[in-house]
Specification:
The protein has 234 residues and is α+β, with helices and mostly antiparallel strands. It is 44% helix and 22% strand. A hairpin with a 7-residue loop joins strand 5 and strand 6.
């Protein structure tokens, strides 16, 4: 179960994401009074599909997966969140239940802002509303891109795009080649909308072609240009 943490231990929202910095001092105090920090263990559920939203959330530390629950316990990972990403806001603004589930991929810290407080500043601060709309537009653009990829690309293109997305979101290790996100073959398959066996075979093919090298869950990109090419041609 999620655990509350003292706000004094964590930087304020506006110190982490500049979208919040346009709030007035009074609005910042108001948000701070209506904000909480929750910590989650690895694989702990943050919210289930169908739950009614009560808070807007922002990831502070860790990694979080957004997914659709499928048949036979096979989940489709919609996207992976990185620190300072917002989530949980679409259903809240639309007045709906969540259409996805969210869980912690690793131990994570999440800011919770009460629904009423978040909607109040959205309505009353036009600059904050505009900046938040920009964030929403970026998310929608990424969602559209993912939808096209998952429906039109073949397995090689989907897996290559997933690896590039992980590189972009989480960066590289000190060797400037190993993706700083270590996923199981099952999770990588769920992110790429393919079976685990197909993901294993495709990774092996990439390794044989010298595009990547594999060490357990660590994936090193050896030929970035070719990986981008595979992603583009699908």
């Amino acid at each position: 179960m999620a655990r509350k943490q003292d706000l004094q231990e964590i930087p304020k929202l506006w110190e982490l994401n500049p979208v919040w910095d346009v709030l007035t001092d009074e609005e910042k105090d108001y948000i701070n009074q209506n904000a909480r920090i929750h910590t989650f263990k690895k694989n702990e559920i943050i919210h289930h599909e169908g739950d009614i939203p009560t808070h807007m959330m922002m990831l502070v530390e860790g990694k979080v997966r957004v997914y659709k629950e499928g048949v036979s316990n096979r989940n489709q990972i919609i996207r992976m969140l990185k620190p300072y990403d917002f989530f949980g806001y679409r259903a809240m603004i639309a007045g709906e239940g969540y259409n996805t589930s969210v869980s912690a991929f690793e131990p994570s810290i999440v800011y919770y802002v009460k629904k009423e407080a978040f909607l109040k500043v959205i309505r009353e601060n036009s600059e904050f509303c505009y900046l938040f709309m920009v964030e929403m537009a970026k998310d929608l653009g990424q969602s559209d891109k993912r939808s096209v990829s998952l429906t039109q690309k073949h397995t090689r293109g989907r897996l290559a795009e997933s690896l590039l997305s992980l590189k972009e979101n989480y960066g590289l290790d000190e060797d400037e080649a190993t993706i700083s996100m270590y996923m199981s073959r099952e999770d990588l398959a769920n992110l790429s909308n393919m079976t685990t066996s197909n993901a294993i075979r495709t990774l092996a093919a990439f390794a044989e072609e010298g595009i990547i090298s594999i060490d357990g869950r660590k994936i090193k990109i050896l030929d970035l240009d070719e990986l981008i090419h595979v992603s583009r041609i699908g």
